[in-house]
TrEMBL record:
<dbReference type="InterPro" id="IPR002347">
    <property type="entry name" value="SDR_fam"/>
</dbReference>
<comment type="similarity">
    <text>Belongs to the short-chain dehydrogenases/reductases (SDR) family.</text>
</comment>
<dbReference type="Pfam" id="PF00106">
    <property type="entry name" value="adh_short"/>
</dbReference>
<dbReference type="InterPro" id="IPR036291">
    <property type="entry name" value="NAD(P)-bd_dom_sf"/>
</dbReference>
<protein>
    <submittedName>
        <fullName>SDR family oxidoreductase</fullName>
    </submittedName>
</protein>
<keyword id="KW-0560">Oxidoreductase</keyword>
<dbReference type="GO" id="GO:0016491">
    <property type="term" value="F:oxidoreductase activity"/>
</dbReference>
<dbReference type="InterPro" id="IPR020904">
    <property type="entry name" value="Sc_DH/Rdtase_CS"/>
</dbReference>
<dbReference type="GO" id="GO:0016020">
    <property type="term" value="C:membrane"/>
</dbReference>
Length: 264
């Protein structure tokens, strides 16, 4: 029997896409996992696979983090189990490719609860514990949509701007504590996010897209090194740099509007 290590990572949105690939990287490094997702059967399937392949301990926390109070409830479960969280990955999130006036306001409430409030709550609670122990790594999954306003994905883009600014500010606050916070900013990636957001017809979602595996590896490496913000892919890096150098907000908006409308 392999020795079960003491380190543990909490990963949200862990049963598919980037979250699954990040969880797999932890498993490959022999780090125990607490996995959070909405569906228990999918969690149990990942648990069985990872425990068989990597000889680690995997715990399943079925929770809908888009519901108020669920992020705090997940943290309480970890406390009740006596788990020391050495890593926190806030990956769960979703978007919608519609104009604001065409979308259901209730969906936006769920989106902001998941993309913003759950991330803030888990980060705040777990970071306090990490600072007390003088060690820990936090990775929040953002998006290149954070660098400018995003017409047709206005609420999603705004939520990721929050994540980027929140995480970067936290990174500065944590200096000297032994704890780091990193934001991963991928562009369009080949995951089921595109289908859920109804983005299948968008031109930027066509052709060969970066894989969740490649994005996860970049984020995992940046987190372990305590980096501030990692943008994945050369094209995305150039776009993020270019938009950051544009001096006028109206010009940024005009560029983003053209990009988001292209091919739709």
């Amino acid at each position: 029997m392999p020795t079960i290590p003491s380190q543990m990572a909490l990963v949200t949105g862990a049963t598919s896409g980037i979250g699954y690939e990040l969880a797999r990287l932890f498993a490959q490094d022999g780090i125990n996992l607490a996995l959070v997702a909405r569906r228990q059967p999918e969690l149990e399937a990942v648990k069985a696979d990872f425990e068989r392949q990597y000889g680690i301990r995997v715990s399943c926390l079925a929770a809908d983090l888009s519901a108020p109070g669920q992020a705090a409830a997940v943290y309480r479960q970890c406390q009740e189990q006596g788990w020391q969280l050495d890593y926190l990955v806030n990956n769960a999130g979703f978007g919608s490719y519609k104009d604001v006036v065409q979308e259901d306001a209730a969906l936006y409430e769920d989106m902001l609860t998941l993309n913003v409030l759950a991330v803030t709550t888990l980060t705040t609670l777990v970071a306090r514990d990490m600072v007390r122990r003088r060690t820990g790594r936090i990775l929040n999954v953002g998006s290149t949509s954070a660098f400018q306003p995003v017409p047709h994905m206005a609420v999603y883009g705004a939520s990721k701007s929050y994540i980027m600014n929140f995480t970067e500010a936290l990174h500065a606050e944590l200096r000297g504590t032994g704890v780091t916070a990193t934001v991963l900013s991928p562009g369009v990636t080949a995951t089921n996010f595109l289908a859920r957001a109804d983005m299948g017809g968008w031109s930027q979602a066509q052709g060969k897209l970066p894989t969740a595996t490649a994005v996860a590896k970049a984020g995992y490496r940046a987190m372990q090194q305590g980096e501030l913000n990692v943008v994945t892919g050369l094209k995305n890096k150039l776009l993020a740099l270019g938009i950051s150098l544009v001096p006028f907000r109206k010009l940024k908006l005009a560029m983003a509007t053209r990009f988001m409308r292209e091919g739709t």
